Amino acid sequence: MAKNAFGKTRPVTAPYAIYRAGEMVWHVCKTYQTTANEGIYSRWFVWAKSPMTYGDFEGGDIYADEVRRYGTLVAADPEWAAAYAFPGWTLPTPAEYLATA
């Protein structure tokens, strides 16, 4: 059985990946299953920010499919990009993205 490379919870300031949809932002800080075992009901622990959260982050679980369906991957660790991004994509790391935001 493969080890989940994204199974350790990270802080909101150092997520594995950042997805964005308009003003909605998700910082992915943990996955509960390996990439190979993920399905439609797989969950990710995220910190989300939107106008409805008054500009603050709120943490909780969300279906991974919802983030991937509605959000655009804008920053990711190299390991995350290799697992979830299209081959050949060049993405900034979350630290680089947050430094320019």
Can you describe what's shown?
- This protein is α+β, with helices and mostly antiparallel strands and 101 residues long.
- It has one domain (17-95).
- The chain has helices at 64-70, 78-84, 94-100, and strands at residues 17-21, 24-31, 43-49, 58-63, 72-76.
- The chain has a 5-stranded antiparallel beta sheet.
- The protein is globular, with a radius of gyration of 13 Å.
- The mean pLDDT is 93.
Distance between the termini: 38 Å
Strand residue percentage: 25-35%
Helix content: 10-25%
Number of helices: 3
Number of strands: 5
Provide a short characterization of the protein structure.
With about 100 residues, this protein is of the alpha+beta class. The chain contains 3 helices and 5 strands, in the order ββββαβαα. The chain has one domain (about 15-95).
Q: Strands, helices and their partners?
A:
Layout: E1 17-21, E2 24-31, E3 43-49, E4 58-63, H1 64-70, E5 72-76, H2 78-84, H3 94-100
Antiparallel strand pairs: 1-2, 1-5, 2-3, 3-4
Provide the descriptors you would attach to this structure in a database record.
101 residues, 3 helices, 5-stranded antiparallel beta sheet, 5 strands, globular, single chain, alpha+beta
